């Protein structure tokens, strides 16, 4: 099976995500967790085939591609150009679609993470499928090859469903029953012999106004953490039973 | 450099310090050793002045004060036997950044935890921090990520206690313990006066220091014992001819003074490759550690988990209490060795060398997990942390039916050439005792921890004998019975194995000179004189 994998490098959400009004790129960066599920699915489906990973991002985004190479990808493309800076989700989808059509047009399936832990729009899979003119199945928890067909599992409102994935479609993955994998030193050694090809705007034949901030419809003005804190009140109660009743009421939504 | 230290007095009102009593005191009576004590009051100073006021009040009235931070200590150092607990939890903020010839340093209150410092440094957001030297905060922001090189496993521990106990981490293998990274401390003495000590500014004249207070002065005699620096060692008070007096307080477990402010050196972060190699048995893993030490590679740390320890970790995972999602190791019932190398252009060279080395000890590159992304490396770190954590949980559980039980484990180090003999001896004694145990930790430093899994008071009594035997052997081999956790209340007996009666008397004399009323951390490290 020929699998294309779209991944993103994001700030580690265990650390500080925001820097003033931007996403922080200073702290530790990691492969987006949901992309990791897509990577696991790709490695499991690959068989005798080939997995090719793509990312668009600054130079250190290479590390995310390298992790893909360690955990099963055979080749990676890094879309890296200062002209790509400021891309919104549409410009990103458009740029990725150009790279796919130009460099890896023959594929059976494209796998992505359901959403990125930083921007959280969850729109890229659908927009990329639209740019490529292929079907999309979003937020799948698993995907397997059975009886000559690819079958994806999804759950909506607690109701599981199985869908047959048409050839040449895009599937986005969220957390399923994947077991976390760790690369071995052998995987690291093998990955170092694999190639990460860098693609700039010129090599994709994109005009400056078709990508980056100038090719985007939206612009992020500010990002901030929502403040969910509420004023507390202190009640002094004489006996434990009344206090317990009150706590139970609060948990049941009756805040008095 | 001067041999004269100036003390100053601070103003603060004792009567306005927040205090807890009754049931609110209970959480302060125990640390991770699971030893339990008692206290009448917990005092919560908000600043250095209040610490001074508490000590002034306590020393004038002869009331014992036990200094308490985050109580992750494992030798009962923060467990009070009577009197007051002085919890430093309210003095926990990072204060500023400075820069000198040796690089950047961070200044903080004593109760900032290691984890909070790590988070602060990795976020590179220093809002609210003061410039201790001109534009230091901006310069640090522009200089890439920095870290503290000492990495004790328990990141909930406070920096102040880490300094007070001269804690070590896995990376002490290459970079030494906390002591080497302390630039400055401020210490409130047992009588409430304050000392401000910057490394390199003072030096003892042979074995004495003069303490000046206004017009009066007092000579402080430094003990003359030999402090064993051939191995990792936190036993007793650090002493040396012509020493920097800052070192008297680092590692003295809070018996000479309370650290109220500290400055620690930072170094630039660099990418690191962490590896966890699995071996079919303990012997092969130990052989690999020896081989790894002897080859020429810039290794930052070598940590070991024996097959009993790995079983405990996997059991915790299966019971759902730890590491959800940790995959099965590539070998059944393995032992493991974790080691760190720089992740740079030399990595292919390292991989070639490791290939042969691993294979000749029953492992391979394929049987070795690796991580270079920080998140993954963090998972390895929590895996290492999980072994002691699982042991402490086990002991806490047994304590429910046998309240007399507390943690029984070793923290002993030997010189490298004594490692083989130590392991052979220890494993023999353990086998004969019939006790269950796990061995893990800093094998690369000749400092494995052995934790005994005790079920009842009978086993507890057996364990006491076992630990005594192990300790005697370690001393015979030129090692230390307390490599990093300190002596606390639980290991005073082992101090007697390392020091003579007159050595201990000199330590007591030093403490008595600073704490005539013997009120600060009484019962920790040293027994009160008759
Ligand atoms: C799972 C686990 C793993 C651990 N791993 C390591 C390790 O890798 N390396 C290591 O060295 N230790 C380790 N420890 C032990 C422990 O974390 C350290 O001893 C640490 O220094 C204790 O910090 P704390 O804030 O919890 O101090 P506490 O336990 O509250 O106090 C410890 C001692 O320091 C004194 N003290 C505290 N603060 C001050 C101060 N400001 N001034 C003067 N005296 C003070 C107390 O009186 C007491 O004697 C581990 C513990 C656990 C539970």
Descriptive keywords:
heterodimer, A: 256 residues, alpha/beta, Rossmann fold, nine-stranded mixed beta sheet, two-stranded antiparallel sheet, 7 helices, 27% strand, globular, B: 530 residues, alpha+beta, Uridine Diphospho-n-acetylenolpyruvylglucosamine Reductase, domain 2, Uridine Diphospho-n-acetylenolpyruvylglucosamine Reductase, domain 3, Vanillyl-alcohol Oxidase, Chain A, domain 3, 3 domains, 21 strands, binds flavin-adenine dinucleotide
Report the CATH topology name of the largest domain in chain B: Vanillyl-alcohol Oxidase, Chain A, domain 3
> How would the global form of chain A be characterised?
globular
Structural class of the secondary structure composition of chain A? alpha/beta
Number of helices of chain A: 7
**Which residues of chain A sit in consecutive blocks of at least 5 with pLDDT less than 50?**
none
Secondary structural class of chain B: alpha+beta
| CATH homologous superfamily label of the largest domain in chain B | FAD-linked oxidases, C-terminal domain
Q: What's the helix-strand series of chain A? A: EEEEEHEHEHEHEEEEHEHH
Task: Tell me the distance between the termini of chain B.
Answer: 37 Å
CATH superfamily of chain A: HUPs
Radius of gyration of chain A: 22 Å
Give the oligomeric state of the chains in this entry, treating copies of one chain as homo and distinct chains as hetero. heterodimer
**Helical run tally of chain B:** 14
Integer count of domains of chain B: 3
Tell me, what is the CATH class of the largest domain in chain B? Alpha Beta
Whole-number total of structural domains of chain A: 1
CATH architecture label of the largest domain in chain B:
3-Layer(aba) Sandwich
Of all chain pairs, the largest interface belongs to: A-B, 25 and 31 residues
Could you give the count of β-strands of chain B? 21
Strand content of chain A: 25-35%
């Amino acid at each position: 099976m020929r699998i294309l994998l779209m991944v993103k490098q994001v700030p580690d959400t265990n650390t500080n995500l925001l820097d003033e009004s931007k996403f922080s790129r200073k702290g530790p960066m990691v492969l987006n967790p949901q992309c990791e599920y897509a990577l696991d699915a790709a490695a499991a489906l690959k068989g005798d085939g080939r997995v090719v990973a793509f990312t668009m991002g600054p130079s250190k985004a290479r590390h995310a591609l390298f992790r893909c190479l360690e955990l099963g990808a055979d080749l990676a493309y890094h879309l890296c150009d200062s002209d790509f800076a400021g891309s919104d989700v549409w410009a990103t989808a458009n740029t990725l679609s150009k790279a796919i059509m130009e460099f890896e047009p023959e594929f059976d399936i494209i796998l992505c993470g359901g959403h990125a832990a930083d921007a959280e729009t969850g729109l890229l899979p659908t927009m990329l499928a639209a740019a490529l003119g292929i079907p999309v199945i979003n937020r799948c928890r698993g995907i397997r090859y059975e009886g000559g067909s690819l079958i994806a599992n999804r759950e909506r409102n607690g109701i599981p469903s199985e869908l047959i994935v048409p050839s040449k479609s895009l599937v986005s993955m969220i957390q399923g029953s994947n077991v976390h994998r760790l690369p071995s030193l052998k995987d690291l050694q093998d990955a170092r012999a694999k190639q990460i090809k860098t693609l700039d705007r010129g090599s994709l034949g994109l005009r400056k106004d078709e990508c980056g901030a100038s090719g985007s419809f939206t612009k992020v003005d500010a990002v901030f953490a929502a403040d969910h804190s509420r004023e507390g009140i202190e009640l002094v109660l004489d006996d434990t039973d009344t206090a317990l009743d009150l706590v139970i009421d609060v948990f049941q939504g009756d805040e008095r | 450099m001067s041999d004269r230290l100036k003390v100053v007095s601070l103003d603060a009102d004792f009567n306005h310090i927040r205090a807890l009593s009754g049931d609110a005191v209970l959480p302060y009576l125990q640390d991770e050793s699971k030893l339990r004590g008692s206290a009448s009051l917990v005092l919560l100073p908000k600043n250095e002045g209040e610490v001074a006021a508490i000590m002034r009040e306590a020393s004038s009235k002869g009331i014992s004060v036990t200094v308490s931070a985050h109580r992750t200590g494992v030798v009962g150092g923060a467990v009070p036997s009577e009197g007051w607990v002085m919890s430093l939890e309210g003095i926990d903020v990072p204060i500023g950044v400075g820069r000198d010839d040796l690089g950047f340093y961070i200044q903080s209150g004593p109760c900032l935890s290691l984890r909070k410092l790590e988070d602060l440094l990795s976020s590179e957001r220093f809002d609210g921090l003061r410039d201790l030297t001109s534009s230091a905060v901006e310069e640090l922001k522009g200089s890439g990520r920095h870290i503290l090189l000492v990495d004790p496993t328990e990141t909930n521990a406070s920096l102040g206690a880490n300094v007070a106990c001269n804690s070590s981490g896995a990376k002490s293998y290459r970079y030494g313990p906390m002591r080497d990274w302390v630039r400055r401390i401020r210490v409130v003495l047992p009588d409430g006066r304050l000392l401000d000590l910057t490394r390199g500014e003072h030096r003892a004249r042979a074995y004495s220091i003069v303490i000046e207070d206004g017009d009066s002065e007092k000579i402080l005699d430094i003990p003359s014992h030999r402090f064993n620096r051939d191995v990792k060692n936190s036993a007793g008070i650090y002493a040396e001819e012509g020493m920097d007096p800052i070192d008297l307080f680092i590692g003295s477990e809070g018996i000479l003074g309370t650290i109220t402010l500290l400055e620690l050196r930072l170094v630039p972060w660099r990418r690191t490759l962490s590896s966890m190699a699995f071996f079919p048995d303990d012997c092969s893993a130990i052989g690999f550690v020896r081989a790894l030490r002897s080859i020429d590679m810039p290794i930052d740390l070598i940590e070991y988990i024996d097959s009993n320890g790995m079983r405990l970790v996997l059991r915790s995972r299966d019971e759902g209490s730890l590491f959800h999602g940790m995959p099965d190791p590539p070998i059944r019932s393995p032992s493991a060795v974790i080691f760190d190398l720089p992740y740079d252009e030399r990595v292919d060279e390292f991989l070639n060398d490791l290939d042969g080395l691993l294979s000749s000890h029953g492992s391979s590159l394929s049987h070795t997990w690796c991580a270079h992304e920080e998140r993954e490396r963090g998972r390895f770190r929590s895996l290492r942390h999980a072994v002691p954590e699982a042991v402490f949980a086990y002991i806490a559980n047994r304590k429910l039916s046998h309240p007399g039980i507390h943690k029984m484990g070793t923290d002993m180090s030997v010189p490298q050439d004594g490692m083989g003999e130590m392991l052979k001896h220890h494993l023999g004694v353990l086998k004969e005792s019939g006790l269950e145990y796990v061995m893990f930790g800093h094998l690369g430093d000749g400092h494995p921890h052995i934790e005994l899994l005790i079920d009842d008071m009978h086993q507890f009594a057996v364990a006491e004998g076992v630990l005594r035997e192990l300790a005697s052997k370690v001393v015979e081999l030129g090692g230390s019975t307390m490599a990093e956790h300190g002596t606390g209340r639980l290991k005073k007996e082992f101090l007697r194995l390392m020091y003579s009666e007159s050595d201990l008397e000199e330590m007591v004399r030093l403490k008595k000179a600073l704490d005539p009323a013997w009120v600060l951390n009484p019962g920790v490290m040293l027994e009160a004189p008759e």
